[in-house]
């Protein structure tokens, strides 16, 4: 059994941040020469991608839960026979 549900948006954001950290580390070590303006669009694009993935996962989860709830409520209500009358 899973301990928690998978959050793909957080995974994407983490991978983007790891990539940016690797780029900054390579720049600081002198192995790669890049200005800070190169990293800004990557950062904002990564945040946008993570938000899009989070929204898509939310919509899929919501649809799956609605489908599951409608399948559970397909039977007749419990009180249709009138057996719960007050005496």
TrEMBL record:
Q: Which UniProt keywords apply?
A: Membrane, Transmembrane, Transmembrane helix
Q: Which residues cross the membrane?
A: 38-60
Q: Which organism is it from?
A: Streptomyces badius
**From which domain of life does this come?**
Bacteria
- According to the UniProt entry, which residue ranges have a biased composition of type Polar residues? 71-87
Q: What is this protein called?
A: Uncharacterized protein
Tell me the segments the record calls region Disordered: 66-87
């Amino acid at each position: 059994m899973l301990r928690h549900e998978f959050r793909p948006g957080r995974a994407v954001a983490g991978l983007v941040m790891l990539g940016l950290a690797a780029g900054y580390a390579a720049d600081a070590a002198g192995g790669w020469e890049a200005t800070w303006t190169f990293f800004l669009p990557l950062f904002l694009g990564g945040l946008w991608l993570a938000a899009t993935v989070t929204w898509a996962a939310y919509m899929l989860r919501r649809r799956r839960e609605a489908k599951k709830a409608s399948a559970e409520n397909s039977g007749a209500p419990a009180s249709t026979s009138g057996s719960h009358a007050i005496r």
